[in-house]
Design a protein that fits this description.
7-stranded antiparallel β-sheet, about 10% helix, mainly beta, 51 strands, 9-stranded antiparallel β-sheet, rod-shaped, single chain, about 675 residues
């Protein structure tokens, strides 16, 4: 501006000198002087911007270019690791077992005998002793004979047992018919049992009746009462021997005692029990990572006992079967607690849900057998076993098919803003899953794309994975494209986020294998879509810019304008034609919605296309001049002006086009105005 004023000063000085010289030559007959004026052209730059595909790529983490500048969409993420650690376990159980030890087996008290002499049953035997005579039949009045006292018990309540009552006839006469022998409590007179002999017992013969004692109570002091009849000598002459006798013997056999006060031998009772493990694995071998069991023993009898316990299913880290013992005090309890960490475990049973953990226990009484004890059939020892939930570091066995949830994951996708209607021609999803699980694994994965409108497309992946033995990692590559899935539909949704959910089915009930806590399934997912696309009609709005025009130029625009125009130069290296419009406003908040001034739209052609490849060979240049009114031109003299460019894409009409990272559109726009200038510094006359 200063140079322009300087030039104007020189011109003014030359004009004044020329007029002065001319006035001298012509004298006073000169016309009135006229002030000098001229037209001046101003060129004001408005826009100078290159919109490159590379610029779009820089705005998106997922839009990339390869070494040949081919543009493609790629999204890659690592999937969370799914480990078998929390799957190697069986549920805890609690069982209560009872062993009654009141039904002690004690030694039978043996046989006790009493004799009944001839004189005891025949009143004339002493008077006729030594004589030969015929003895007529006669009744036998009840005769009571005390049995010798049993030394091993005071009393016993018999749960099982019998007593044999035998008659051995050493008389010269027969006994019966009938003959009755009653077994009685000599202290109370209570009849315990009785035997009736319904046959004649001849001299020199014997007869035995066995009586059931179940539920009977016998004491150490018992007696027998004999009654009945005798046929005498049956008409035969016999010699009377008053000392002759018949013997009654009571022998207790096969005795089990429900309760007693007796001398009892040390008892040893064995029992085998099992705990049912209802789980979906048949364990042939495993190593316990954490877990425990607790055994609680309680006795309600006054005998100290020892419990010997064996659980063959558990073996210590050095390979020894778990064996232990505990002392249970009289009418008391004791407890065993075992930390199973490091133990190996195996179960019994071949069917799912019916496996068992067996354990055996032996109960030994620790009393003095020479001291009488009192006990009852209701006396018992109770064993409560509590097996916690067991977690394993390794299991070998057969696994029923079991679904395991995959951790849910959500990934954000950063696509180019304002280009949310891309239509990709193809898409590829590569899912690589690394499996260490040698058992069969079937996936049921759901990959769901969701855009900003809430629209969703789901891709389901159901594949069988291979795993390596001994924890070896085996990669499993899964490829999905438009030929075998709806992955193209998902990518054309232009998702803003990706959800990964699902589960895996592990195990085969017919196949045995090993599963370790460190065995895992992890992987990564890669979406890849070449940017050979169909583009629907849509707009792309540039960022809003602050338009800066020199104040001196604004001052010139305030002068009288002859005319003004905008010259737009467009170099397009895009594979499609488009249009552009320029927006101007004094506020940047509503530039595109409510502009003060709109220039365009202006159409421009695509670049020069190679028909064989569809790629741009060279840019196409377009120049457009748009006339401006004085009002439109003067708009740019305002204090603050914001500008923006809207690229208007008409769409590819279903045709597929390809982009390179080197494609671009270059836009230059200038205001061209002619200002008529008059020199107002010289007064006219």
């Amino acid at each position: 501006m200063k140079n322009r004023k300087f030039r104007k000063g020189i011109v003014r000085t030359l004009l004044i000198q020329s007029v002065f010289i001319f006035s001298i030559i012509m004298g006073c007959n000169l016309p009135n002087p006229i002030a000098p004026s001229w037209d001046m052209d101003l060129n004001i730059p408005l826009i100078n911007k290159t919109y490159s595909i590379q610029e779009f790529l820089d705005e998106s983490d997922e839009m990339k270019a390869d070494s040949l500048n081919n543009v493609y969409f790629e999204f890659e993420e690592q999937l969370d690791t799914l480990t078998a650690e929390d799957q190697l376990h069986v549920e805890g159980v609690k069982e209560v077992f009872t062993q009654e030890i009141g039904n002690f087996s004690i030694s039978s008290p043996g046989a006790e005998n009493v004799t009944v002499e001839f004189r005891d049953i025949f009143d004339q035997a002493d008077a006729m002793n030594g004589q030969s005579t015929v003895v007529p039949s006669f009744p036998i009045a009840p005769i009571t004979k005390q049995l010798p006292q049993y030394e091993r018990f005071d009393w016993i309540e018999i749960s099982q047992g019998a007593i044999d009552i035998s008659i051995e006839n050493n008389l010269p006469i027969a006994l019966g018919l009938p003959l009755t022998v009653e077994l009685k409590n000599s202290e109370t007179g209570e009849i315990i049992t009785s035997a009736v002999y319904n046959q004649v017992i001849q001299p020199g013969m014997s007869s035995t009746e066995q009586l059931d004692l179940q539920g009977k109570r016998i004491t150490s002091k018992m007696e027998v009462v004999i009654s009945g009849s005798s046929p005498g000598s049956d008409g035969q002459v016999i010699v009377i021997d008053a000392d002759a006798a018949f013997k009654v013997q009571a022998a207790v056999t096969d005795l089990s005692v429900a309760s007693a006060s007796a001398l009892v031998d040390a008892q040893r009772v064995s029992q085998e029990d099992h705990v049912v493990i209802e789980d979906s694995v048949i364990i042939s071998h495993s190593i316990v990572r954490s877990g425990s069991f607790k055994l609680h023993f309680a006795g309600d009898f006054s005998i100290e006992t020892q419990v010997l316990l064996s659980i063959p299913g558990f073996k210590s880290p050095n390979g020894e079967t778990y064996i232990d013992s505990v002392i249970v005090p009289p009418n008391g309890s004791s407890e065993l607690f075992v930390n199973l960490t490091g133990y190996s475990f195996s179960s019994d049973g071949d069917d799912f849900g019916s496996q068992t953990l067996k354990f055996s226990w032996i109960i030994k009484t620790l009393h003095d057998p020479n001291v009488p004890i009192e006990f009852y059939s209701t006396d018992k020892l109770t064993a409560s076993i509590t097996l916690s939930e067991l977690y394993f570091s390794e299991i070998t066995g057969r696994f029923a098919s079991k679904w395991i949830d995959v951790p849910d994951q959500t990934f954000a996708i950063d696509l180019v803003d304002n280009l949310d209607s891309l239509a990709f021609q193809n898409a590829i999803l590569q899912l690589t899953l690394f499996s260490q699980i040698e058992l069969p694994v079937t996936t049921d994965l759901h990959i769901t794309g969701e855009n900003n409108n809430g629209d969703q497309v789901e891709v389901v992946i159901q594949e069988i994975l291979s795993g390596g033995p001994n924890g070896d990692v085996v990669p499993n590559d899964i490829y999905l494209d438009r030929t075998n899935s709806n992955i193209l539909e998902l990518i054309n949704l232009i998702p803003s986020k990706i959800h990964v959910t699902g589960r895996v089915l592990v195990g085969d009930p017919m196949q045995s294998g090993t599963l370790r806590e460190t065995d895992a399934v992890n992987g990564n997912v890669i979406f890849n879509a070449p940017l050979a696309f169909m583009l629907p009609a849509q707009n792309y709005d540039s960022d809003v810019s602050d338009l800066e025009i020199d104040q001196d130029i604004k001052d010139e625009l305030d002068s009288k304008l002859n005319h003004g125009s905008i010259a737009v130069h467009i170099n397009s290296h895009l594979p499609i034609g488009a249009g552009l419009a320029m927006y101007f406003a004094e506020s940047d908040s509503n530039l595109y919605d409510n502009p003060d001034l709109t220039i365009g739209p202006i159409s421009f052609e695509s670049g020069e296309i190679d028909e064989s490849t569809g790629l741009v060979l060279a840019p196409t240049t377009s120049t457009v001049n748009i006339e401006l009114s004085e009002e439109e031109t003067n708009y740019f003299t305002r204090e603050q002006v914001y500008s923006g460019v809207r690229l208007i894409f008409p769409g590819t009409e279903g045709n597929v086009v390809r982009l390179l990272a080197t494609d671009y559109v270059d836009i230059k726009a200038n205001i061209q105005v002619a200002v008529h200038v008059e020199d107002s510094s010289k007064d006219t006359k």
